[in-house]
């Protein structure tokens, strides 16, 4: 056992022990993980290796040991042991294989404090030879307390989540996680004066475009909310030590050491993170938890799980971390761009510097383009908030013109959602069902992150060719008769040629074209198609007039 000169006073009673252990001869090899020299000989906890067949979790006399059948034969090479002691939890790994996770109830009634110790013993077998080396012990810091909020709390469990047919109990994991983080940073009450809970936050998000296309939480909106709350606090004479919570997202594979260190640093600075993980290893959706303690970098973290108060550990594997959401106290830029559309749509974005992103490659710096699954119930992963979508997310987007194109193998009406935020967190939101065909439908987003008003607008780029493509698509959807398709296509060819030589005559025929659409309705053209083509034709008229 280490003496006082070796054992630091600040080590505490929760720690991680790693060492190499040679079990050379005999059957009695031991590592005590809670040993106090002030107690009697039998009052300690240890891992008791009985070669060759099993491991015992030996606990104080008068209690029952736990036997684990795991081969530990004597051999000339070492076993690498890792023992995590954290309050009532013990984890033992041998050669990087998790052997057991055991909850004591409670650990420390007899030995509330203590150190580790190394021991070899004899019994029926008179000789026992054990060697130890490369011993490393690190303390586990106590996490800063976070007020736990459950999505299954009776006060709100049966309330509707977002605008779905499900409840907060079903799908409120990200909602409750965000509420915990906001409470942690004292960002309460809400702007209307109500106490911040998953229920009140859910209503605020519904009213403020806080949910995205497939029912996931839009964390840019949480950042926006945080600034509103800090502004109110300042005006009331109780300012907070930051202006807002700035939203960061990390989707880098968690095998990256740099990424692991970044995540660990945030948590060790007492900044809780929100982990997005697979819902019970399901491919149908995601689950969100709050992480507030580093146990083993890149592998094990202390968490608060909104759906299960007893689940306090994230272990990878079997748990699978997909990405991290970080809401950081900030005085800086809250700008962002979030673009979403349905799974069947091919979405391409080109930024002002001519960098492009699509489902096959992303050359836009510091952005995320991904296939995004909905939220799923952790205990019932088939219960989901929506359908998978394609999503583009860019933090601090450059001001300028963004070119966006949509196309689909199967033509149809698809969702096209766009959230733009300026540097103050103010939002501009576009949510429409748009016609998408085989040929790209082009849009232009004009964006200025520094402007406080009119900082974003989206325009459909309509040309004679794109209008012809739309007519073809509407015919494929049986919203426009083949006869009408042929007549309208021929008319557009004629008008396009006329515009090259006689602008006013072309402009007149384009007005006649709209009249013809109305005449073909409803016998040859569905009223929905007529309305759409009329709006597109008017956009084309305006575009040609501005260019003339």
Enter the CATH topology name of the largest domain. Answer: Cathepsin B, Chain A
CATH class type of the largest domain: Alpha Beta
Rg from Cα = 31 Å
Quickly give the structural class. Answer: alpha+beta
Number of domains: 4
Helix content: 10-25%
SSE layout:
Blueprint: E1 15-25, E2 29-35, E3 45-50, E4 54-58, E5 66-69, E6 79-86, E7 89-94, E8 97-103, E9 115-120, E10 129-139, H1 168-171, H2 173-184, H3 198-207, H4 219-235, E11 244-250, H5 257-268, E12 273-278, E13 286-296, E14 300-304, E15 313-315, E16 321-330, E17 336-342, E18 345-350, E19 356-357, E20 367-372, E21 389-395, E22 400-408, E23 412-421, E24 427-436, E25 441-447, E26 456-460, H6 464-476, H7 482-501, H8 503-519, H9 527-547
Antiparallel strand pairs: 1-6, 1-10, 2-3, 2-9, 3-4, 4-5, 6-7, 7-8, 11-16, 12-13, 12-16, 13-14, 14-15, 17-21, 17-23, 18-19, 18-22, 20-21, 22-25, 23-24, 25-26
Helix pairs in contact: 6-7, 6-9, 7-8, 8-9
Question: Can I get a quick summary?
Answer:
This protein is an alpha+beta fold and 548 residues long.
What would your notes on this structure say?
The chain has 548 residues and is of the alpha+beta class. It folds into 4 domains: 15-139, Sandwich (Jelly Rolls); 168-330, Cathepsin B, Chain A; 337-460, no CATH class; 464-547, no CATH class. Helix content is 23%, strand content 33%. The protein has 9 helices and 26 strands. Strands 11-16-12-13-14-15 form a 6-stranded antiparallel β-sheet. The longest helix has 21 residues, at 527-547. It is elongated and about 110 Å long.
């Amino acid at each position: 056992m280490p003496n006082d000169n070796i054992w630091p006073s600040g080590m505490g009673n929760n720690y991680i022990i790693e060492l190499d252990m040679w079990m050379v001869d005999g059957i009695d090899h031991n590592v005590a993980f809670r040993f106090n020299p002030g107690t009697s000989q039998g009052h300690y906890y240890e891992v008791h290796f009985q070669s060759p067949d099993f491991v015992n979790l030996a606990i104080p006399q008068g209690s029952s040991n736990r036997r684990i059948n795991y081969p530990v034969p004597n051999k000339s090479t070492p076993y690498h042991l890792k023992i995590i002691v954290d309050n009532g939890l013990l984890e033992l790994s041998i050669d990087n294989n998790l052997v057991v996770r055991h909850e004591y109830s409670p650990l420390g009634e007899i030995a509330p404090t203590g150190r580790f110790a190394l021991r070899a013993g004899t019994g029926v077998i008179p000789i026992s030879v054990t060697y130890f080396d490369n011993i490393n012990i690190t303390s586990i810091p106590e996490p800063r307390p976070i007020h736990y909020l459950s999505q299954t709390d009776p006060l709100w469990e049966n309330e509707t989540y977002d605008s779905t047919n499900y409840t907060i109990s079903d799908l409120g994991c990200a909602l409750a996680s965000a509420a915990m983080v906001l409470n942690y940073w004292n960002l309460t009450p809400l702007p209307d004066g109500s106490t911040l809970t998953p229920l009140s936050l859910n209503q605020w998000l519904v009213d403020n475009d806080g949910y995205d296309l497939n029912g996931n939480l839009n964390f840019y909106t949480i950042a926006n909310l945080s600034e509103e709350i800090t502004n109110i606090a300042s005006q009331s004479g109780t300012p907070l030590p930051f202006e807002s919570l700035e939203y960061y997202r990390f989707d880098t594979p968690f095998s990256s050491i740099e990424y692991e260190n970044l995540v660990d640093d945030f948590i060790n600075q007492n900044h809780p993170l929100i982990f997005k993980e697979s819902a019970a290893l399901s491919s149908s959706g995601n689950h969100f938890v709050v992480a507030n303690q580093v146990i083993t970098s890149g592998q094990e973290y202390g968490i608060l799980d909104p759906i299960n108060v007893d689940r306090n550990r994230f272990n990878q594997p079997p748990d699978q971390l997909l990405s991290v959401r970080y809401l950081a106290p900030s005085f800086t830029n809250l700008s962002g761009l979030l673009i979403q559309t349905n799974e069947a749509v091919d979405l391409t974005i080109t930024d002002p510097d001519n960098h492009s992103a699509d489902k096959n490659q992303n050359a836009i710096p510091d952005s995320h383009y991904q296939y995004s699954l909905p939220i799923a119930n952790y205990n019932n992963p088939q219960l989901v908030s929506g359908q998978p979508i394609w999503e583009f997310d860019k933090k601090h987007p450059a001001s300028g013109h963004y070119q966006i194109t949509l196309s689909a193998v199967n033509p149809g009406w698809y969702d096209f959602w766009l959230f733009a935020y300026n540097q103050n967190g103010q939002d501009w939101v576009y949510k429409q069902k748009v016609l998408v065909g085989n040929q790209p439908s082009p849009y232009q987003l004009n964006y200025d992150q520094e402007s406080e008003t009119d900082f974003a607008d989206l325009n459909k780029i309509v040309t004679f060719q794109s209008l012809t493509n739309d007519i073809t698509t509407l015919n494929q959807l049986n919203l426009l008769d083949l006869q009408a398709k042929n007549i309208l296509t021929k008319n557009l060819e004629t008008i396009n040629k006329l515009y090259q030589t006689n602008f006013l005559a072309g402009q007149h025929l384009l007005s006649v074209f709209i009249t013809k659409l109305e005449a073909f309705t409803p016998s040859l053209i569905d009223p929905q198609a007529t309305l759409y083509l009329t709006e597109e034709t008017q956009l084309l008229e305006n575009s040609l007039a501005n260019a003339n």
